[in-house]
Write a structure and sequence with these properties.
Structural class: mainly beta
Low-confidence stretches: 1-22
Largest sheet: 6 strands, antiparallel
Radius of gyration: 24 Å
Strand order of the largest sheet: 5-12-11-6-8-9
Helix content: under 10%
Number of strands: 12
Shape: elongated
């Protein structure tokens, strides 16, 4: 078996069978059975940052009923890579949300327009006004 080879250039590492890895952020290890294991370098993982985009700073409830605490609702509309969700914390006797929270981890290039429809959960008709900031 041909040994694992690397070029002097740290950005392009060439291994047997012509496999080319175009990143210094990948570590290659030859396994005993001859396969090559690729994984991300710890320094690359440590350098990852959460997506930067508009953030939601306020939510006002508009409509909907039949929901239960713990329901997770997903925003409908807009152009996103990662969709906005919120979790219902409390409801009144008709299942109208009285408390909710949201977390980061969403990414939009075009925000949905208000009122924003939401899907999911046990109820129907959820609409919220979202205040976005850059």
């Amino acid at each position: 078996m041909e040994p694992l080879r690397k070029t002097i250039n740290p950005v392009v590492e060439v291994f047997n069978k012509g496999l080319v890895v175009n990143s210094a952020s990948v570590i290659a290890t030859r396994l005993r059975d001859g396969r090559i294991r690729l994984h991300l370098a710890p320094s690359f993982i440590a350098s990852l940052k959460p997506p930067v985009g508009p953030s939601v700073t306020n939510i006002v409830y508009d409509a909907g009923s039949g929901y239960a605490a713990g329901d997770i609702l997903t925003a409908v509309g807009g152009t996103f890579t990662i969709v906005f969700t919120l979790t219902i914390d409390s409801v009144d006797g008709s299942g109208v949300p009285t408390g909710w929270h949201w977390a980061g981890g969403y990414l939009y290039t075009v925000e949905p327009t208000n009122p924003v429809d939401f899907s999911g959960g046990t109820g129907t008709g959820a609409q919220f006004d979202l205040t976005w900031s850059s």
